[in-house]
Amino acid sequence: EELVAGNPGTTVLFGQDSLSVTTGKTVQRAQPAATDIVGMQLTSGTTGFPKICVWKQRSMLAALDGMADAMHAGRDDIYLNWTPLYHDMGLVNNFLLCLSRGIPLVMLKPHDFVKDPAIWLRAMADTGATITWAPNFGFALAAQRVRDEQIEGVRLDHVKGFWNAAERIHLDTILAFQKRFEPIGLAPEAVKTNFGCAENIGGATFSDPDGMFIVEHVDPEALYEDGIAQPVPADSAKAVSIVGVGRPHPGMTIQILSDDGTPLNDGQVGEIALATPSRIEGYLNDPEETGKAIHGDLLITSDLGYMRNGEVFWVGRTRERITVRGRKIDPSDFERVLLDIDSLRPGCFTAFGVDDPVSGSQQVVLISEVKETPGLSSADVIEEVRDKVFESMGLSIKDVLLVKAGTLAKTSSGKRRHRHFRDLYANGELAPFVVAG
Known about the structure:
The protein is α+β, with helices and mostly antiparallel strands.
C-alpha cells in the first residue's frame, strides 16, 4: 500500500499471482521511438562538476548489441554482478544487457563483496555464473583477502570471463588473481579486460572472448616524455607493463588523436576517439561541453592511449596527468604501489600535482584513507608510502596525507576525483579529516 500511494500513476504488480496471465490485469507495453530518451547518467566528475549524459533509445540498443556480440554472450550464459546499479558497469554492462538478451542475472550487494570478497567466488560456483565484472580493485581485494577455508569446495572451471574494467588495469593485480585462484579451476584466459565510458554507454573495447588479454612492455622514458610506446624486453630493468583493453565492439572504429586532432600512428600516445553508434546524444543543457566531446562523427573521450595492430592500450586521462620535470604521470600509476601497504584501504586514494614555481615543474601530493587500526602510527605509514613510491617509481612525494575512511568519496561511476580533492587540499579544507598519531 505504501508503494502504491507513493507512486501515483504507476501500475504495481505484486508477486507471482499478479504476474499470471489469468489475473486479467494488463499493463500497456512501452514502445519507445529510436530518438526517445532512454536514460541519463552522470559523468565521473573527476575533472570538474559532473555532466549529465543523455542516452537515446537507438544508441542504447547499439551499445547492448555491440557488447553482447563482442563478448559472445548468449542465453546459455549466467551473469553475476556485485557492482552498484548507479554505475554504468552495473546498470548497462550487466542489468540492461541481460534484460535485453534474456540472460539470467545474479545480483549481490556491493557492501557484501567489500566485507567478504569470497562471496563473489562462492556465488559464481553456487549459481553456475559464467560472466562477471569488477574494477581492478575488486580483483586485488579478492586476491589479497580470500582465505582457503572461505572457498572450500568452490570451482571456477566453468567461468568464461572475469571482466576487469572501469579503472586502470594493473598487470600485477591480474597475475596475482590468476595465481591465487588457479588451484580452484580458474583458467588463465578467463580473465578479460575492457574499456568504456558513460559517453559511449557502457563498454567500448573488449579483449578476446576466447583467448588471453594482451600485454606490452614499453620504455617508460619514451612513453611518459615522448608519447611513444617503444617495446622493450619484459625483463628489462626499466620496462613498464601496459595491459591492452581490447578491440572495439562491432560497429565501432577508434582513432588516436594528437593535440591538434591529427590521427596518430600505431604506438603513438594521444586522445582516444570513438566513431560509434552507441555514443551519447550530448550533455543535458550543455551545448558547450557537448561540442567539446562530439566532433562530427567522433566522440572525444579525454582518455589517453595508443593502438597497436587494432588493440587499444589505455594509459591515463588528459586532465589528470601530473608533470614532474617533464615526466608525465597518471594518478592511477600509484595504485599498484599503494595496494602493497597493509595499513591503507585498497583503492581509496587520490593523487595530483601542485605547481612548484621554484623548479618550474610540479610536485606530487598523495592522499589515502587508512584502516582503523589500534596503535596506528601515521608517521610510520607516511614513511612507508614515501619509501615504496621512491623505490618503485623513482619519485619523491611532496606531501602524504592520511585521512579517515569515507573521506575520499568517489563519483557515481566509481572513479576517483583527483582534481576535486586537489582544490580542497589547496584551500586547506582537508585538515579536519587528517589522521594524527
